[in-house]
Specification:
This protein folds into five domains: 156 residues, no CATH class; 91 residues, no CATH class; 95 residues, Type II secretion system, protein E, N-terminal domain (GMP Synthetase, Chain A, domain 3, 2-Layer Sandwich); 127 residues, 2-Layer Sandwich (Beta-Lactamase), CATH 3.30.450; 264 residues, 3-Layer(aba) Sandwich (Rossmann fold), CATH 3.40.50.300. It has 777 residues and is of the alpha+beta class. The N terminus is likely disordered. Helix 16 packs across helix 17, helix 23 runs antiparallel to helix 27 and helix 24 runs antiparallel to helix 26. The strands form six sheets. Strands 1, 2, 3, 4, 5, 6, 8, 9, 10, 11 and 12 form an eleven-stranded antiparallel β-sheet that branches. Strands 25-24-26-27-23-28-31 form a seven-stranded mixed β-sheet, with helices on both faces. Strands 19-18-17-22-21-20 form a six-stranded antiparallel β-sheet. It is elongated and about 110 Å long. The chain has 29 helices and 31 strands. Belongs to the GSP E family.
Length: 777
């Protein structure tokens, strides 16, 4: 507990872990035994426990008087009362997903200066400025002990991490031995050896500088630091030396667990599971844990990163924070002082914490990543220049840790913000990073053009593209797992005069697999759509402009068919989501494959229903009609502004009108529109040409979201589907067979009660849901 806490409490004992199943007040009050260094034993009620002044006040049972006892006089004390461990009292947050409580009790053995030995099993322990606090377990009860630092001769709190790993068969004795050897070597390794390792200088140059150092120290009777001399003699730059110094310090402080992980002998997860039980703190995998977003603002990113700590939730007025090092007293105290809250400690692997940073701190993490990458890039160029060698191309560096972290965190941040696409747009002086959300492109940040090749090469690696090819456009697909969800990445790279431009479309497998009812259709239209999907054969067209959600609707239609014991196939240029029960054919992953070739091959596999993920042309349109005539259900896509326009366009492509009239079941025309933010609605100024185009009265009033804090200045918060479902009646079939025009189809559809897409959109405009500008797009 921090200084401000002790000043306000009579009893300043550290809190008992909330996960232990004991109310803390039961162990902080009542009768205690105190063994003094003089072997005298006192019994009584604890009145005060003051860590700052290092004394306690005891109401002595024998004399009835309050006695002040300095910690330096105490051998140890314990509370008499044993408290039952009751897991039913544990807060539900410690029983949820992503959290594991310590799996075994640890042993302890403390030798006191007065000759006493305290030992046994403990649930947990805490060390503060006053001493060691032990939460001793006896059968199914818990008892508190306190041993001042001044009375401790030596102590063993649990097994060493190496012994724990061995006893749990996580690593072998040979692995432990190698790690201990490396740890010893790194602690004694000199800065010159690190400079040699980094190829900043050779042995001859180092020996020359060392001889100069010895000569100066001998003649001038001063101690000259090797780093100052290396820079002075221009053997290294100051930045290169500082880089090597950081490497040295990092290695000198290396822990046995980190070395075992670096060597690949075990995982960081295994190490932290052992640390969890060894130190009596919960183990948490943050990506599976339900984080309370309100607590993130309590700890700034810079502080969280410095201490490798992440806030999770508030439980019983304590801030639950997970640390990569649960024994880092400086980190715990700094966060306690910053938040003015008592800290409930947990532990997580450092990489798991870094992923959480990307998901919850977003922009701050990306800014830090760019700074790290710029420094890494500068160091790489400097080292290559010293050795008069080339750093090669970006292929050699694109898999380096700073590059990998940056690209991964950009993608993670975009996913956390609900972004649909990431754009990297090169310019002559800088590169812009942009996010597309609700069909609006907004700038995230800019970065130096020198970093573009590194970042693009890493993205190509993720998309399984040729990273060495920079002159031709490339498409690729990849995936990333965020918070236990698989996100598909559809990547396009295009060379421009200023460098390679990149677009990454983010496609959540779970978000893409909606049912027809979840698309946003009304109940009547959803039932009609599902009824059409139950037909044995025919063609259903999904139409709309680019970015209107056609693929989502096609996937929803396929999902409805999955449980019908049918052979289902799809032919797609790039798969945007995997559908269980559907054989999906991805064209761009097959050399020299075209859409017609792929469709021919798929049809030979005897599907009952087939989805065509690319927009139909004359050739594939005819193939789709033939497939429908041969008894298959065909789902196809087409660029068109409305259902009637889609029919007219197919006829214009030259498909057989009789075949089309015989097979076409329905046309589903759709658009995605942005919904006005209700908190900042204002009258919209509508240009005369827009009113004329949409045929609305000059006096009619319309509304638009102008931007506020609630919508982050965007004027919109979310999007919605607007659509037109046109079932093909006998009269429409006759018009199609007679090669009618778009006006004929539209009039007949309206006569049958179908509301055209344009009128459907205007209805939402008049209800203030969307703006006229959005309707006009």
């Amino acid at each position: 507990m921090s200084a401000y806490g002790y000043q306000n409490l009579n009893i300043g004992l550290p809190e008992i872990p909330l996960w232990a199943g004991v109310y803390s007040e039961k162990l902080d009050q009542g009768e205690i035994n105190v063994l003094l260094n003089t072997q005298e034993e006192l019994q009584g009620r604890l009145i005060s426990f003051n860590v700052l002044e290092k004394h306690l006040i005891l109401n002595d049972n024998h004399s009835g008087q309050d006695k002040r006892i300095n910690f330096s006089e105490i051998g140890f004390l314990n509370f008499k009362e044993k408290n039952n461990l009751d897991l039913d009292t544990v807060d539900p947050v410690f029983k949820g997903a992503g959290i594991e409580l310590p799996r075994w009790n640890e042993t302890y053995e403390i030798h006191l200066n007065n000759g006493h030995v305290i030992d046994g099993e403990m649930k947990a322990y805490k060390i503060d400025d006053a001493g060691i606090h032990i939460f001793k377990t006896i059968e199914n009860t818990l008892m508190r002990y306190f041993i001042p630092h001044s009375s401790v001769k030596r102590s063993k709190l649990g097994n060493k991490i190496g012994d724990e790993l061995l006893s749990k068969n996580i690593v072998s004795a040979k692995h432990i031995s190698e790690a201990l050897h490396d740890q010893t070597v790194h602690k004694t390794k000199k800065i010159g050896e690190y400079l040699l390792d980094q190829n900043v200088l050779d042995e001859e140059a180092l020996e020359k500088v060392l001889s100069i150092q010895q000569e100066i120290e001998k003649n001038q009777k001063i101690n000259l630091k090797i780093g100052d001399l290396l820079v002075k003699e221009k053997v290294t730059t100051k930045k290169q030396f500082e880089y090597a110094l950081r490497k040295q310090n990092k290695k000198k402080n290396a822990k046995i667990g980190d070395i075992l992980v670096d060597k690949g002998y075990t995982s960081d997860v295994n190490i932290h599971r052992v640390l969890s039980s060894k130190h009596g703190v919960p183990f948490i995998m943050i990506d599976a844990f339900k984080v309370n977003p309100d607590v993130i603002k309590l700890i700034p990113f810079e502080t969280a990163k410095e201490y490798s700590a992440f806030p999770l939730d508030i439980v019983n007025d304590r801030l639950l924070v997970t640390f990569s090092d649960p024994l880092d007293k400086n980190a715990i105290e700094a966060i306690r002082s910053l938040t003015k809250k008592d800290i409930e400690i947990a532990t997580s692997p450092s990489k798991n914490i870094e992923k959480a940073f990307a998901s919850f701190y977003g922009s701050a993490v990306i800014k830090c990543n760019f700074e790290n990458l710029e420094k890494f890039h500068f160091d790489s160029i400097s080292i290559a220049a010293i050795n008069e060698t080339s750093i090669g191309n970006s292929l050699e560096l694109s898999n380096a840790e700073p590059v990998v972290h940056l690209v991964e965190n950009i993608i993670t941040d975009a996913i956390a913000q609900g972004v649909s696409a990431i754009h990297i747009r090169p310019g002559c002086e800088a590169v812009d990073l942009l996010y597309r959300n609700n069909n609006t492109l907004s700038k995230k940040c800019s970065f130096h053009v020198a970093l573009l090749d590194l970042i693009v090469s890493r993205i190509k690696t993720i998309g399984r593209m040729d990273a060495s090819e920079k002159r031709r456009p490339q498409d690729g697909v990849g995936s990333i797992k965020v918070n236990s969800k698989e996100i598909s990445l559809k990547i396009s790279v295009l060379p421009t005069v200023d460098g390679e431009s990149v677009v990454i479309k983010l496609l959540s497998a779970s978000a893409g697999l909606r049912s027809i009812c979840e698309l946003g259709c009304n109940e009547q239209d959803a039932e009609l759509f599902i009824d059409l999907l139950n037909r044995d054969s025919g063609l259903i067209l999904i139409v709309g402009p680019a970015g209107s959600g056609k693929t989502t609707t096609l996937y929803a239609a396929l999902t409805e068919l999955v449980n019908k014991n049918l052979k289902l196939m799809s032919v797609e240029n790039s798969i945007e989501g995997h559908i269980k029960g559907v054989e999906q054919l991805q064209i761009n992953s097959i050399p020299d494959c075209t859409f017609p070739k792929a469709l021919h091959s798929a049809l030979r596999h005897d599907p009952d229903a087939i989805m065509l993920g690319e927009n139909l042309d004359a050739e594939t349109g005819e193939m789709a009609l033939e497939s429908a005539l041969n008894g298959r259900l065909v789902l196809g896509a087409l660029y068109a502004n409305g259902a009637s326009d889609a029919i007219a366009r197919l006829l214009a492509l030259g498909v057989d009108p009789v075949k089309l009239s015989s097979t076409l079941l329905a046309v589903f025309s759709q658009r995605i529109v942005k919904i006005n933010c209700e908190d900042c609605l204002a009258l919209e100024e509508v240009a005369p040409n827009i009113r004329q185009s949409l045929q609305v009265d000059a006096e009619e009033k319309f509304y638009v979201g102008v931007g506020c804090d609630s919508c982050n200045g965007a004027g919109t918060k979310e999007s919605m589907l607007v659509y037109e479902l046109l079932p093909i009646s006998d009269k429409l079939k006759a018009l199609i067979a007679d090669k009618g025009d778009v006006n004929d189809f539209r009039k007949q559809a309206m006569a049958e009660g179908v509301v055209p897409l344009k009128l459907n959109i205007l209805e939402h405009v008049r209800s203030k849901k969307i703006s006229m500008q959005e309707a006009y797009k």
